[in-house]
Amino acid sequence: MKISKKILALVLAIATVAALAVGTLAFFTDRIQAQATATAGTLELALTDITTSNSTKMKPGSGSTVNFTLSNLGNKSADVKEVLILRSPVAMTAGAEEFDLYLASDVTLTADGKVTIKDGKSPVAARSVSTDRKSITYTISEFILNGTGEDAETENGIASNAKSSAYVLVFKNTAGNDFQSISVTLDYLAQAKQHRNTNDATWTDVMSETITFAGNSTAAVPEK
User: Fold this and answer.
1) Which pLDDT belongs to residue 199?
2) pTM for this prediction
3) Contacts for 172-180: CB closer than 8 Å, 24+ residues apart
């Protein structure tokens, strides 16, 4: 059985990096951090290119869309968890962070990039700001993707083998001069484990390897 990894780092200016490797485990896992296909036997994650708008020369009060689709191309159904980390080289204001990530449906974005947050809407949850206020971590609720193709595993109540995500990175109109000419980075990590027949393995059991993600050491599914 093969395991693959990909690393996705989206810099709003924009740069990306990718890596690919293989390994083995007692059951199927996969992780993806980039704009390529990761293969893990019959558990295979694929990530479309991340598309953005207004991603350069953003000004206070503007927004940039961040859209992508994560797919399971293997025939095994998969448990999936996603994390996005927004990083700024300048410390943001506590409780009023100058940059934040919203669901696209929670904001109004005009053709010229002007953004308005809809009444009562908050940034993507669950959300955690680092002690130095230079990064925000968004942990997306775990979900299941059906398998694909011949002998595909499909789970009750699960409609698809793919999940499309649409976000808007908001640059608040309260930002001051400290934020001129900086580049912020949005790092994305998706990890998957086989949904069925995993001997009740938890994410803690599976994530026995340490990788570098968003500039820090992070627990991840193992590689050889």
Assistant:
1) 67
2) 0.81
3) 172/60, 172/61, 172/96, 172/97, 172/98, 172/99, 172/100, 173/60, 173/61, 174/60, 174/93, 174/96, 174/98, 175/60, 175/98, 178/90, 179/60, 179/88, 179/90, 179/98
* pLDDT the model gives residue 164: 95
Q: Look at residue 45 in the predicted model and tell me its pLDDT.
A: 75
- Which residue has 């191309």 as its token pair? 73
CA gap 157, 140 in Å, rounded = 19
**Residue (of 167, 185, 172) closest to 97 by Cα position:** 172
Q: What is the mean pLDDT of the chain?
A: 80
The secondary structure of 13-66 as a DSSP string is T------------SS-EEEE-SSSEEEETTEEEEEPPPEESS-SS--TTEEEEE
Q: Tell me which residue of 202, 221, 199, 197 sits closest to 210, measured CA to CA.
A: 221
Does the pLDDT at position 224 exceed 60?
no
Residue 194, pLDDT > 70, answer yes
More confident residue, 213 or 58: 213
Q: Which residue has the tokens 């976000």?
A: 167
**Which residue type sits at 53?**
S
pLDDT in tens, 82-135: 999 999 999 999 999 999 999 999 999 998 889 999 999 999 999 999 999 999
